[in-house]
């Protein structure tokens, strides 16, 4: 017998599960999530989980602010801890980027995001021993920090299930099913069975182009490998804010065990990868560069050494922003291309996707659903920061 659901979501990562949860909250519970492995085993499992509202795109800043509010109420909403720690978030820029920093933080204030300009003395008070010679200005979000992407995705799944959503794991979609007029009406599974749907939502991250191609759609997503380092300073890092260094293009945050998690923000020379075949360990040259930058910021680390490293893949679009909305093919909705920043906005992504699927319009006046349309690339109108940073354009 052929199974069916009004909405079939392919991909059980953060974005697919947030959408399943949001649809169910809105009363649409005839939803079936299909995940080829286990939930949150894709790139969600690799996420650094950093939460900040510091964006140069207004809709994204508003979406991140919604994320902060959901994450900080996780106990009430999901009945479980999602690992969200409001450590505070600092972004530091050099002299050439003070004007965009001011303009961006002004825009954040208009959205009611709590954010302050702080000076180097205040940064040093928050993070003793940090070296700030490279920086000219800082913005501080006291409610920012980081969460656990796996725990968050599983919380979405659990809430969605309690509301009636069905989830099937170990269920690989081989291709999209299309009528002669091109309309997508379901999916063909790898075991040869079919599942029919009014709408299929593609939330398959780095694997999206392959499935899109089965319906003749060229999804503009490329796969960019990124490495994460875990560094033992030779002492337990005290409770410090999450820090974005927009001079040396690196971000750092404290791990629960006192190590530092160190990630790269320099996307000038992306390393394109195959999401099914990439080295899950940072290369030596990447380690050397990252440790050099870290040493500049924290010159007094007593006895630093690399605890471990791993790598993940960003599903990047040409403007490093996601596609959230209908595809050119009727019956197929896209939720792809989160380009390395899909954790913090995931509650708002679910809400926006549910709005667009059910009403065709965003329910949040601060979030323009049109911003994320598929056609923007062909129109030559990429979604870019209103106040871009010199040398850090991808800090949207
Ligand atoms: C190293 C790294 C660090 C990051 N750090 C941050 C951060 O600090 N802050 C932030 O906001 N964001 C961050 N992100 C981004 C964020 O984690 C991602 O945007 C988000 O997890 C993507 O979720 P997703 O659901 O789109 O994709 P995924 O989690 O990859 O989920 C897609 C799912 O689809 C499944 N799938 C694929 N093909 C099929 C098929 N044919 N049939 C069935 N299922 C299929 C996969 O198995 C997978 O589970 C980071 C990402 C990485 C890689």
UniProtKB/TrEMBL annotation:
Its EC number is 1.5.3.1. Pfam families: DAO. Residues 260-279 are annotated as: Disordered. It is an enzyme of class 1 (oxidoreductase). GO terms for molecular function: sarcosine oxidase activity. Keywords: Oxidoreductase. GO terms for cellular component: cytoplasm. This is FAD-dependent oxidoreductase. It comes from Rhodococcus coprophilus. The gene is soxB.
């Amino acid at each position: 017998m052929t199974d069916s659901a009004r909405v079939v979501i392919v991909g059980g990562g953060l974005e697919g599960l947030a959408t399943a949860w949001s649809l169910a909250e809105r009363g649409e519970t005839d939803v079936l999530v299909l995940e080829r492995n286990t939930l949150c085993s894709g790139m969600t499992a690799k996420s650094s989980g950093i939460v900040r509202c510091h964006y140069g795109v207004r809709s994204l800043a508003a979406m991140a602010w919604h994320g902060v509010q959901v994450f900080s109420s996780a106990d009430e909403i999901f009945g479980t801890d999602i690992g969200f720690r409001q450590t505070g978030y600092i972004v530091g820029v050099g002299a050439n980027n003070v004007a965009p920093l001011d303009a961006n933080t002004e825009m954040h204030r208009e959205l009611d995001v709590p954010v302050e300009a702080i000076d180097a003395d205040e940064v040093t008070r928050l993070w003793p021993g940090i070296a700030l010679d490279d920086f000219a200005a800082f913005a501080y979000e006291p409610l920012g920090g980081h969460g656990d992407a796996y725990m968050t995705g599983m919380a979405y799944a659990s809430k969605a299930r309690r509301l009636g959503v069905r989830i099937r794991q170990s269920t690989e979609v081989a291709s999209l099913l299309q009528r002669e007029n091109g309309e997508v009406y379901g999916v063909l599974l790898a075991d040869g069975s079919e599942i029919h749907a009014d709408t299929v939502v593609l939330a398959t991250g780095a694997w999206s182009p392959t499935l899109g191609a089965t319906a003749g759609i060229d999804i503009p997503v490329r796969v960019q490998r990124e490495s994460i380092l875990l560094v033992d300073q030779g002492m337990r890092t005290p409770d410090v804010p999450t820090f974005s260094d927009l001079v040396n293009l690196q971000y750092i945050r404290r791990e629960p065990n006192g190590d530092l998690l160190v990630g790269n923000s320099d996307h000038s020379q992306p390393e394109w990868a195959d999401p099914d075949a990439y080295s899950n360990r940072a290369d030596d040259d990447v380690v050397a560069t990252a440790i050099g930058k870290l040493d500049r910021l924290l010159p007094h680390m007593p006895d630093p050494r690399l605890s471990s490293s791993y790598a993940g893949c960003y599903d990047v679009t040409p403007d490093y922003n996601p596609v959230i909305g209908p595809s050119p093919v009727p019956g197929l909705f896209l939720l792809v291309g989160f380009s390395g920043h899909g954790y913090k906005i995931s509650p708002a992504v679910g809400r926006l996707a549910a709005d667009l699927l059910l009403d065709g319009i965003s329910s949040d006046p601060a979030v323009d659903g049109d911003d994320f349309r598929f056609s923007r690339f062909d129109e030559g109108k990429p979604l870019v920061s209103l106040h871009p940073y010199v040398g850090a354009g991808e800090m949207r």
